Amino acid sequence: MIAINNVLLVDDEQLDLEVLQRFTPWEQLDMAIVGAVHGGGAALNLLQEKHVDILITDIQMPLMSGLELAEQAKRLFPHLKIIFISGHEDFQYAKRAISMNASSYILKPVNDQELLNTLQLVREQLKYEREQMKKEEQMDSSIPLLQNEMMYQWLRGTIEYRMLYHFHEKWGIIWDGGQCCVAIIEMDDMAWKLKAFSDDQRRFAIDHVFRLISDYIHVRQLGIYCKTGDDKVVILMGGCKLEPAETMQNLVDHVRNHSNLTITVGLGSQVDSLQRSPLLLPESLRGAWNEDVCRQMSGNHDGADRGRNR
Prior knowledge:
Layout: E1 5-10, H1 14-23, E2 31-37, H2 40-49, E3 54-58, H3 66-76, E4 81-86, H4 91-99, E5 104-107, H5 112-156, H6 161-170, E6 180-187, H7 190-193, H8 199-220, E7 223-227, E8 233-238, H9 244-258, E9 263-267, H10 281-289, E10 295-298
Helix pairs in contact: 2-3, 5-6, 8-9
InterPro entries: CheY-like_superfamily, HptR, Sig_transdc_resp-reg_receiver
Protein name: Response regulator
Keywords: Cytoplasm, DNA-binding, Phosphoprotein
């Protein structure tokens, strides 16, 4: 589907506005006029009411010049494309237009072909910017999935720690690889707690708990984590700013207070530095699984004597 670019026309001369509206092939340019006003104040109001991609404005107008309008509009909408139209070939005007990164500075009487060429160029610029924004959004949405898979493969031993570290470094993910420990989170008694649920309800309940856990980790910057194939979460808690056992107990309480499900957390021993000794991680990982050596917190008070930490 072709994107339609919205255009706002501003000129204190009614005849000039009508000429621009009537004799420019807006539809062929994939553009639509969303407003044609006589002054800067009205233009600013309309800019805040409607989405505008391109502002075409006269420079010399009473009360507020086109340059003043453009400066205020750019502060509000930095990505707005601006085309100036002027009846005066004044270098100072052109200089200010250039400083605002204007798309063009066209002299009156407007040459139809010059305006057409300018609008075609602006259309291509907007198309390119949208494509770049879409690519960035797609990349941003895929990074958490890539991070999850990278960490999961590292925990399984199929990739080395340095690959995970370089991935975090490349995408600006905060993780120092210093002192850390492993926490393993699993949901309690899902089979019978969700027995009466439909498949969709069951998936929603489980996803809700995962969102509670991931939001808790992100807000407190606890470290990096991944979901495993068996609906568990492994957290690699970094640094020593927080007491791991207390932090995980708070997470257990947080999930219990905001969900019908509860979780149990197994906490392994601390490792001094993964950067210096990446092979120490399995020791903490095994500890998080081993109920005889790890610290465990459970939100399932009813089953306190059954299984892990019960």
